[in-house]
Amino acid sequence: MDTHGQAGGAGAAQTTHAVRLERLAEVAVKVGLGLRPGQELVITAPLETVPLVRAITEQAYRAGASLVTTFYSDDAATLARFAHAPEEAFDTAAGWLYSGMAEAYRNGAARLAVAGDDPSLLAAQDTARVSRANRARSQAYVPALELIANFSTNWTIVSAATTPWARTVFPDLPEDAAVARLWDAIFAASRVDGPDPIAAWETHNAALHARMGALNAHRFAALRFTGPGTDLTVGLADDHEWCGGASVSRSGITCNANIPTEEVFTTPHKDRVDGVVTSTKPLSYQGTLIDGIRVRFEGGRIVEAEARTGGAVLAKVLETDAGARQLGEVALVPASSAISASGLLFYNTLYDENAASHIALGQAYSKCFLDGGAAFSEADLVARGANRSLIHIDWMIGSAEIDVDGLTAEGRAIPVMRAGEWID
Asked: Which H, E and C letters describe the chain, residue by residue?
């Protein structure tokens, strides 16, 4: 892996940071959210990302937002909790906050998250405390998560370079240089280096939609992933539908939920996953780095799990609830994607999942069904194989050494990917 890849390119050198920051904010509002005049916007972000949040806020008001409300997280405050809070505090979460967010989304507010967390923030903290705090937050977050996972409103996630994150990605560079290099990579992956980022996103979305359409035409019953340490069959949910790129929320607004995105994805059948699979990139989860994941599925459930690092946290994740050991998403990404081609390991799920095919433990996206799942009740979705859980955690299983076949209902194998690349 070349951690000093050419992310950013010549165009980046000719465009100032301020200009690219404004372009990223414009893409976040116009492409990511598709924000409508009169719509409220709720933003969550790390404290260090204030410059981007301010630029997004300005773009949102220019687009006609009625109100922008931002909630900031602070790494120092988080660590203070683990250093000084009483033991019972780790079973507490701000349920009132997430209930309020859910109410805002039900009333039509858009949601935007700015990612930039320190991948190893909680690595030195007590694993049991981390698990309890994460579980409490996950439980409190359910009212908002259900609306997001169901695409009840338009939402998106973008990233901003922060010093702790940059230090992790570029450990051999001085801090200023590392942050600048990470910004270059973010701008390039988010397609804001060219003269017309909005047009670039239209072209990219069209390509993803074409791939999505081809997969939907096959109506595969399952996918099979094979390669080093992996022989996994992922059954697909009944009446599943592939999604990718821009999609229409249930509120009727077209949005790109991830900036950047290189994936097409759908809902697995929670009870039809069998075999072994090995992660191909580390998973950064709630401040802990989990690397070298290897699990075995039987009848849809993980029955064996291990990891070279972060194994204790992984074990706690799998104990979150009944659905935490089952899959809620499967996604295909070519090994030559723009993010993979950067040669960088980002230690950030939003980016690393778009460098490789991946699966997600936990909650399924009910949108990934025929007609966007609109005609199906909660019981209908579960009957068709959709998983339900407090969590949704993506981890990467694809690489240039992984083959993917689509399996028909009759069991015939049709090549979909070879050596990590699409078969056309």
From this structure: CCCCCCCCHHHHHCCCHHHHHHHHHHHHHHHHHCCCCCCEEEEEEEHHHHHHHHHHHHHHHHCCCCEEEEEEECHHHHHHHHHHCCHHHHHCCCHHHHHHHHHHHHCCCEEEEEECCCCCCCCCCCHHHHHHHHHHHHHHHHHHHHHHHCCCCCEEEEECCCHHHHHHHCCCCCHHHHHHHHHHHHHHHCCCCCCCHHHHHHHHHHHHHHHHHHHHHHCCCEEEEEECCEEEEEEECCCECCEECCEECCCCCEECCECCCCCEEECEEEEEEEEEEECCCCEEECCEEEECCEEEEECCEEEEEECCECHHHHHHHHCCCHHHHCEEEEEECCCCCHHHHCCCCCCCHHHHHHHCCEEEEECCCCCCEHHHHCCCCHHHHHHCCCCCCCCEEEEECCCCCCEEEEECCCCCEEEEEECCEECC
Would you put residue 231 in left (φ > 0), alpha (ψ -120 to 50) or beta? Answer: beta
Residue type, 222: A
Q: Is the pTM of this model over 0.70?
A: yes
Question: Which pair of structure tokens corresponds to residue 286?
Answer: 């709630």
| Distance (Å, whole) CA 221 – CA 406 | 8
- Euclidean distance between CA atoms 51 and 83, whole angstroms: 29
Cβ count near 63 (within 10 Å)? 17
| pLDDT tens digits for range 99-120 | 999 999 999 999 999 999 998 8
Q: Nearest Cα to 150, choosing from 379, 378, 407?
A: 378
Tens digit of pLDDT for each residue in 139-171?
A: 999 999 889 988 999 999 999 999 999 999 999
